[in-house]
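hey
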């Protein structure tokens, strides 16, 4: 048996430092710093005699960022402090963006509920002056539903087919030209679409003012949004699904119909609803083409109509207390209309989405 020479190391009792473990702030620290910053910001605003809550909020946000960096640098080090500052700036930006939205929604709900009731939804302004109290939005609600519905029936199929062409078939000059014009249409102002329909449909063809004329202008605004959103959703469908279907001998058109579209139906539906929300609040094309009408007109192809955005504009322009109340109530109904459409879109998307469970 051979003797092995081993090298022995000195044994020490000193603990080995753990370089991966450092002091950490508790989880409630960011919330505590935020509360303290708000309190200090309000105190500074009161001491300085500032009456604007915006100034108080900006001071609080600045104190929150500075305090987050200082406390984190003291406890966790400068590297973690820089990371905490970046996170704090993101939170501050989110709050600054959401506060005006929440304020607007709250103001609309509070002011709109003063005049919103069953009579307001079931009566029109027929026989009433804009300065009189009472009246309702039934005529404007009918006009909005018909105009947005017709615009959707026109724009959604055209936008869907255009997106399918660009993703599945588009190559060469024609595809580049279609993409270029879609990009151009995305940036056109709504008044330009209204003027185009006014100069062609109303003046050239002498078809007159109607809800259908307004729907044509709204469809022009809606089409590029549908094309772009649908195009992005179709690009997200894995090519392996297409290749597997084609390998089984399925024609390309049937692969698109049975594989690609069902896979992307959730995103497509959401994109269409975003486009509907985009046009539901447009006033300029409706003002030019639908022309406004205080009476109920259920025929979108004949005669002037009204719509909710146009009704809000007309009532706000009057400037009386009663007209202001009607304007806020109509704005609340319009917001609720868009929210209901989005909820319906989410439900349809979830219902039609491919099942992933076994």
């Amino acid at each position: 048996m051979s003797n092995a020479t081993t090298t022995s190391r000195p044994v020490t009792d000193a603990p080995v430092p753990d370089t991966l473990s450092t002091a950490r702030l508790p989880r409630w620290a960011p919330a505590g710093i935020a509360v303290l910053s708000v309190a200090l910001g309000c105190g500074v605003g009161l001491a300085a005699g500032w009456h604007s809550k915006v100034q108080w909020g900006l001071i609080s946000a600045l104190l929150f960022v500075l305090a987050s960096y200082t406390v984190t640098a003291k406890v966790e080090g400068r590297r973690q402090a820089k990371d905490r500052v970046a996170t704090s700036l993101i939170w501050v930006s989110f709050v600054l963006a959401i506060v005006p939205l929440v304020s607007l929604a709250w103001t609309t709900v509070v002011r709109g509920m003063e005049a919103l009731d069953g009579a307001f939804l079931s009566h029109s302004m027929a026989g009433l002056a804009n300065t009189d109290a009472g009246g309702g939005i039934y005529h404007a609600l009918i006009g909005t539903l018909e105009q947005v519905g017709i615009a959707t029936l026109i724009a959604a199929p055209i936008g869907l087919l255009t997106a399918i062409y660009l993703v599945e078939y588009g190559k060469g000059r024609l595809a580049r030209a279609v993409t270029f014009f879609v990009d151009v249409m995305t940036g056109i102002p709504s008044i330009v679409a209204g003027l185009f329909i006014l100069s062609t449909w109303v003046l050239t063809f002498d078809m007159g003012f109607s809800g259908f004329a307004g729907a044509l202008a709204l469809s022009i605004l809606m089409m590029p949004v549908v094309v772009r959103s649908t195009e992005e959703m179709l690009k997200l469908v894995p090519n392996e699904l297409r290749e597997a279907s084609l390998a089984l001998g399925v024609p390309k058109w049937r692969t698109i119909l049975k594989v690609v579209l069902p896979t992307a139906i959730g995103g497509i539906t959401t994109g269409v609803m975003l486009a509907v929300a985009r046009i539901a609040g447009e006033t300029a094309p409706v003002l030019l083409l639908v022309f406004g009408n205080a009476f109920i007109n259920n025929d979108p192809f004949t005669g002037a109509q009204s719509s909710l955005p146009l009704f809000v504009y007309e009532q706000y322009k009057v400037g009386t207390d009663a007209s202001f109340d009607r304007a806020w109530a109509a704005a609340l109904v319009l917001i609720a209309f868009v929210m209901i459409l989005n909820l319906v879109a989410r439900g349809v998307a979830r219902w039609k989405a491919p099942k992933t469970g076994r």
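Residues 145 and 225 are 20 Å apart (CA to CA). The two ends are 64 Å apart (CA to CA).
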